[in-house]
């Protein structure tokens, strides 16, 4: 990271160790994800490996077979009205058509990612694209990334509109119409890429010093071994799978759901428009700030395993889009006051999310030489050590939104997430899954990040938490 300027280099410790893994562990123990697995982490991981695919299936099946009721399938099973086999037999299988659509989709995204260098930064003022540097890895490596996600999103959407509305190559409902067969394709890719990443971590890692082995197969499979697996110089697994195909698809999936509403009911409801607009802003924000994304936890600290590989291919596109799917089955038309209230909440959440992230980014980029809310930012000086023994210095801001709470960006994200759910009315719990999930995800992420920062910065982190005592909500948590 630009502000992490090495000031003092110490000789690496533990070089005499025979085993390279232990060697790295000895000097890097204070930084990055866990080296050892406690029973709680292992139990959570086994639970997720077994049940996350079933949860996704259950949600999507509930919509397709039970009008989005989460309780009716269970009641049917408990009361003996149906057997598991009845539900399974009514589920569409993998089709040749879905396999072709999905293969073309992923291949197209790979082509956009790898072969079309960014041109958006040449004419869009303020947009940062093209070749950018990521953060310093625990082994002291600084990776280069081709930031061209905004361009990929624009090209994909222009082609989508041209193909569906101008040339009528296919119907805009194509995604909804193949939703479950596409789920099987997404699962195949999710498992294939996670398994490949695991094998690659053992046999041909991109950077052996940035690998972590706990010795527990399930933990390593789930949380990943390699930090930044790559194929060739530019195909970075984390950047590709985190951003595309899942997040580029997010807005197309919502558009397809809106088109299905139009086809079924002859109109698109204001709730569907709200979900499309608010989530569209979130997606566009992600790509506009893709260079900033290189500094987030996903890229800076998470290793690439099933959690990211399968999660990006399946969990994200299928569960983040539940509101749009729900509205196909339950076309909610909101009163004007209700719709305006949701729009305000969604925009306010987005504003807090973006401004908080922007404040940290500006602060870090300028090394604190900037103005936050018209004043020079306040901060705490801190230091940490990388795997080769180099000592780095950094700063933790204690003013602006970062003075209100240690993760006010998550609070904004949660307010925006709640808005999407509220757009669906109060008839069913299913569209509220997103806010429940995001609350768990971001709270857990907050604790995980704080644990990591505490190991990384030691007593400096304690000074910081004393200066900013709350995590998400000032005065409450
Ligand atoms: P942050 O952007 O909050 O990054 C946390 C890191 O920032 C810390 O590890 C630390 O890194 C640094 N940091 C912490 N406190 C300070 C401070 N006071 N001053 C300066 N730097 C600080 O977290 P994420 O990467 O998790 O999230 C980025 C955004 O993405 C969030 O807005 C989140 O809501 C969103 N998000 C959305 C998800 C979704 O599924 N929709 C999932 C996850 C995130 P360092 O080691 O460099 O000091």
Automatic annotation (TrEMBL):
Superkingdom in the source lineage: Eukaryota
UniProt KW keywords: Cholesterol biosynthesis, Cholesterol metabolism, Endoplasmic reticulum, Lipid biosynthesis, Lipid metabolism, Membrane, NADP, Oxidoreductase, Steroid biosynthesis, Steroid metabolism, Sterol biosynthesis, Sterol metabolism, Transmembrane, Transmembrane helix
Molecular function per GO: 7-dehydrocholesterol reductase activity
GO biological process, one term: cholesterol biosynthetic process
Catalytic activity reported: cholesterol + NADP(+) = 7-dehydrocholesterol + NADPH + H(+); 7-dehydrodesmosterol + NADPH + H(+) = desmosterol + NADP(+)
Gene3D superfamilies listed in its UniProt record: 1.20.120.1630
EC number: 1.3.1.21
TM annotation in the entry: 39-60, 94-116, 150-170, 182-203, 304-322, 334-353, 417-442
Topology within the bilayer: Multi-pass membrane protein
Enzyme class: oxidoreductase
Coiled coil: none
Pathway: Steroid biosynthesis; cholesterol biosynthesis
GO cellular component, one term: endoplasmic reticulum membrane
Localization per Swiss-Prot or TrEMBL: Endoplasmic reticulum membrane
UniProt xrefs under Pfam families: ERG4_ERG24 (PF01222)
Role description: Catalyzes the last step of the cholesterol synthesis pathway, which transforms cholesta-5,7-dien-3beta-ol (7-dehydrocholesterol,7-DHC) into cholesterol by reducing the C7-C8 double bond of its sterol core. Can also metabolize cholesta-5,7,24-trien-3beta-ol (7-dehydrodemosterol, 7-DHD) to desmosterol, which is then metabolized by the Delta(24)-sterol reductase (DHCR24) to cholesterol.
Protein family according to the UniProt entry: Belongs to the ERG4/ERG24 family.
Record-linked PANTHER family: 7-DEHYDROCHOLESTEROL REDUCTASE (PTHR21257:SF38), DELTA(14)-STEROL REDUCTASE (PTHR21257)
Listed name of the protein: 7-dehydrocholesterol reductase
Organism: Catharus ustulatus (Russet-backed thrush)
Originating gene: DHCR7
């Amino acid at each position: 990271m630009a502000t992490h300027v090495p000031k003092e280099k110490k000789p690496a410790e533990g070089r005499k160790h025979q085993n390279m893994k232990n060697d790295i562990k000895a000097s890097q123990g204070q930084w990055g994800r866990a080296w050892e697995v406690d029973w709680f982490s292992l139990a959570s991981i086994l639970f997720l490996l077994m049940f996350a695919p079933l949860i996704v299936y259950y949600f999507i099946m509930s919509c397709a077979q039970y009008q989005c009721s989460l309780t009716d399938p269970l009641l049917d099973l408990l009361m003996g009205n149906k057997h598991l086999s009845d539900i399974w037999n009514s589920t569409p299988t993998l089709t040749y058509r879905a396999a072709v659509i999905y293969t073309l989709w992923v291949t197209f995204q790979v082509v956009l990612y790898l072969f079309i260098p960014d041109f958006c930064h040449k004419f869009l003022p303020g947009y940062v694209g093209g070749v950018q540097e990521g953060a310093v890895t625990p082994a002291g490596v600084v990776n280069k990334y081709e930031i061209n996600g905004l361009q990929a999103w624009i090209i994909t959407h222009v082609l989508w509109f041209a193909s569906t509305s101008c040339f009528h190559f296919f119907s805009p409902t194509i995604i909804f119409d193949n939703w479950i067969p596409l789920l099987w394709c997404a699962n195949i890719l999710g498992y294939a890429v996670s398994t490949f990443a695991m094998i690659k971590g053992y046999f041909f890692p991109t950077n052996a010093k940035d690998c972590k082995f706990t010795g527990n197969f399930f933990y390593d499979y789930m949380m990943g071994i390699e930090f930044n697996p790559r194929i060739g110089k530019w195909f970075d697994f984390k950047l590709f799978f985190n951003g595309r195909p899942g997040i580029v698809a997010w807005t197309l999936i919502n558009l397809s759901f809106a088109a299905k509403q139009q086809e079924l009911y002859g109109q698109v409801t204001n709730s569907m428009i709200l979900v499309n607009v608010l989530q569209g802003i979130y997606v566009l924000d992600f790509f506009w700030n893709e260079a900033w994304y290189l500094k987030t936890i996903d890229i800076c600290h998470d290793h690439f395993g099933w959690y990211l590989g399968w999660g990006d291919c399946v969990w994200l596109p299928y569960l983040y889009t539940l509101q749009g799917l729900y509205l196909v089955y339950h076309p909610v038309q909101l009163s004007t006051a209700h719709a305006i209230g949701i729009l305000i909440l969604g925009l306010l959440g987005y504003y807090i999310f973006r401004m908080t992230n922007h404040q940290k980014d500006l602060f870090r980029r300028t090394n604190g030489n900037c103005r936050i809310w018209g004043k020079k930012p306040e901060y705490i000086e801190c230091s940490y050590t990388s795997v080769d023994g180099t000592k780095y210095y950094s700063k933790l801001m204690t003013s602006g939104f970062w003075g209100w709470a240690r993760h006010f960006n998550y609070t904004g994200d949660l307010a925006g997430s709640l808005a999407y759910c509220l757009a669906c009315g109060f008839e069913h719990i299913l569209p509220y899954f997103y806010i429940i999930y995001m609350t768990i995800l971001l709270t857990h992420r907050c604790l995980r990040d704080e644990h990591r920062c505490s190991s990384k910065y030691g007593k400096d982190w304690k000074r910081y938490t004393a200066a900013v005592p709350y995590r998400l909500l000032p005065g409450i948590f």
